[in-house]
Amino acid sequence: MSKKGTVLKYVGVGIGVTLIDFVTYSLLMALIFSENVDMVGVASVISGIVATFAAYLLHGNITWKTRDPGKFGIVKFFAWNAFMVILLRPLMSVVFKSFTGLYQFGYMISSAIHLPFEYDFVENTGIYLLMTVVTMILNFLCYDRVVFGSADKKQREEINVEGVRKSGEEKKSKSKTN
Question: I need a surface site. Which of 50, 107, 120, 124 has the fewest CB within 10 A?
Fold first, then answer.
């Protein structure tokens, strides 16, 4: 499959995973952490964990379904995502929380066109969107190059068959010389 086709599938699956992540994050911020905006990092971690499970299932069966991630593919996937969810996402959420001018501008526009959004919603959504863009780019690079490997299942089988043939030929030639 072409890189363009993989990117398009990744984006499509990513949109679905992002919706799962966003709904989880928004519900947490609205229902559980509504009184404490400083809990944005915790909400980010929890929604990220939920999204990670969805991402593994969907990317493995749709985006890179023709690739063989090898026996450590699942370990690489969850290790990368643990690093992303536990360290990078909370760090990004704290950094992006400091972009108050951007959120104030967004809130002014929202108010000017009479959208029913409170400032907290605009801020939380802005943090989430910025975090999502950076996360999606980093995840694509890691999944494509590290987690799901570069060879299709068929290519790996051909490489393995060729390796068996060569080792068999080497054994024959060694036995002839002995």
Answer: 120
